Amino acid sequence: MFYREVGQYKTTYQADMAVFPILQDRIGIAVILAIAFIAIPLFASEFIIMSVMVPFLVFALAAIGLNILTGYTGLISLGSGAFMGVGAYACYKLTTLFPGVNIIVWIIVSGFFSAAIGVVFGIPSLRIKGFYLAVATLAAQFFLQWCFVRIPWLYNYNVSGAIEVPERTLFGVAITGARATPEMRYLVLLTIVVALTWLASNLVHGRIGRSWMAVRDMDIAAELMGIKLLPTKLLAFAVSSFYCGVAGACMMFLWYGGGEANDAFNVNQSFNVLFMVIIGGLGSLLGSFLGSFFISTLPTLLKFGVPAIGIPLTGAFAEHLTHVMVGALIIFFLIVEPHGLARLWQIAKQKLRVWPFPY
Amino acid sequence: MKRFKWTMAAALVAGLISAAPEPAAAQDTVFIPLLTYRTGPFASSGIPIADGMRDYLEMINQRDGGINGVKIVIEECETGYDTKKGVECYDSLRSRNPVVVNPYSTGITLQLIPRAAVDKVPMLSMAYGLSASAEGNIFPWIFNPPATYWDGASVMVAYMAQREGGFEKLRGKKLGLIHLDAPYGKEPIPVLEVLAARYGFELKLYPVAAADMQNQSSVWLNIRRDRPDYLYNQGWGAMNPTAVREAIRNNFPIDRLVGVWWAGGDDDARAGGAQARGYRSLSFHQAGTNFPVIQDILKFVADRNLSRVATRDRIGENLYNRGVYNSMLMVEAIRTAQQLTGRKAVTAEDVRRGFESLNITEARLKEIGMEGFAAPVRLNCADHNGHNNVFVNEWDGTRYVRSSDWIAPLRDVVRPLIEDAAKKYAEANAGWPRRTEVCDQRS
What we know:
The complex is a heterodimer. By secondary structure, chain A is mainly alpha-helical. Chain A is built from 15 helices and four strands. Chain A has a single domain, classed as ABC transporter involved in vitamin B12 uptake, BtuC (Orthogonal Bundle), CATH 1.10.3470. A two-stranded antiparallel ribbon of chain A has the order 1-4. In chain A, strands 2-3 form a two-stranded antiparallel ribbon. In chain A, β2 and β3 form a beta hairpin. In chain A, α13 runs antiparallel to α14. The two termini of chain A are 14 Å apart. Chain B is of the alpha/beta class. In chain B, the strands form four sheets. Chain B has a seven-stranded mixed sheet with strand order 6-5-7-8-9-12-13, with helices on both faces. Chain B has a two-stranded parallel sheet with strand order 1-2. In chain B, strands 3-4 form a two-stranded parallel ribbon. In chain B, α2 packs across α12. Chain B is globular and about 60 Å long. About 3% of the residues of chain B have low confidence. Chains A and B meet through α3, β4, α11, α13 and α14 of A and α1, β2, α3, α4 and α15 of B.
């Protein structure tokens, strides 16, 4: 009833191939974008923006990156944390070497550095698959993290080994550094995320995405159909690392405002992103967003939201509870819906389509 | 029924989203949030500090009804020693007008330093954080008394010289720095490098990654190979007891393993059993319960079951007393701010001025029941640290006892380095605000 398609005629091939063929979906997207771009900066508190929305968007970007590799191309990676680090350190070096160029340009360009490193570590993917590839990417994680800690040039020989984000402006308004308001950071981040999501959506729905999925579903068959495996896999690695790199740069510059690799880009971060992709749904852009929201904001909501509705919880207890609940919920979801939250949403949509007359 | 459920769900969601913290409480209170960590790999060090900080403030509330009658609103926020969670805590507490914030982690401090000046909240990073932030002209909102890590490292060198019989005897010696591979652990390196060049000793670095805190065998393999004459331990949390145990296992003379003040937890030494006797750490206050202030905590807090300590005998442990000392500094700064402004409910800006005029004399220490507990502290506009003397504690098998005189940091080396580093920090952070805060010259 809510998803009644009756009367929505498609008269061109283009209309039939649209990403959102149903009017209700298009309205829904427009409403979500309006809330994200207008309502949240206007009405949400600084805490909600900085501790809920910004982490959610940063991780959504990283999850899209990993989803392109793992969900769409079927190559498991445990190096996404390190690729995020490449983006962050590249962006830091670029903006300190060329402070005149706008920081948003460097945030995007740093993605290309990450893509290049990703391609290098993606070369073994032609010969090895599955767990073996996962271990190879884990090597990338440790090697790159080692570089971030042990090559002082990367953090400009800072005594503490951390990168400190300088103030950078856009049209005279600070968007990084301490004086940047949460609203500005959020809007810049949101714009980047929306633009890159649109790009990713076009990629995965087009020829390139189809070749990725063909490789994922059966690489020999894909090769027989004329898809060249190495370029396809390497492209997946490049695009995936690009997204992770941009996410890492956003994380350091628009969210953390400084930090160091052992804390921000360690193997736990890689696992975090992997959990987001698995919980959200492999091979689904929507899943990247749902998974990221679930994993990155659940602890915050538990720790601050539960006391806010009047249930007293001490910090330490909330912390333990978070660990227990996140663990339990992950197991629960994997049993009840192994295809992730995105699949749950599809089921709900299907139910709404036929409601109130279930078959 | 269904509609009711939906309404409930919507209300719940709305409640969560609009969960803005309640507005600041009544006029005659000051809000002091405590960023603590009672969970995670650093909890063993974090818990006694959290208890000590809380209990002193609670004691002031119970015994005196607050600071000059102004009640302290205490609230803990759990950081897990995780930078991201710490910043999240800060964000959630900031709208409630805290008069002072203690990040209690070098990583969190580094994140919050640029924000302190923008948000106008004074930050107390008591003997931790960025050493360069001792320069008040560049960091008017950051305070790190009574000594920086650079002071600590220089005291370590001076102590080494004492044991060897003079600075000239240091030539050809080897000093190892076993440190947590994080901003906290790396802090003393630059000053040790300068001193190594000056006195001709060799500096060896032994970084321990946070993930390997409890598995240091590879690091100790290197230590066994290099055979340093002294080891300076800049570790934290689970790293310290492991270092003590490894030192014993590797036959490293335990009295030559000297921790920075944070590596002086009772549990750190206790882990080594009887053989840990002789383990040393720097300190700037005494351990034990033999002081009126600790007796008052026992009487007004522990006896009334207001403390969160696991067992009563943990009161008086070294790190517990460090928490007490930390809270004492905040309370004295607020008291000074009250004197300066003549107002009772002081603001964050007032407390910043209070810190700059902080002058805890011998007589004042006696008044607050801390005679002999710690040394006088005096800050001013330019010097937010004091570079005070520290002494060396020794583990006697059951508790820490003072084993050296007060040792002065090599201020002639440390202070210029700090001023230089502060200037570099401001240059690297383009647009670093110039100090506009007026200087109180009370004294």
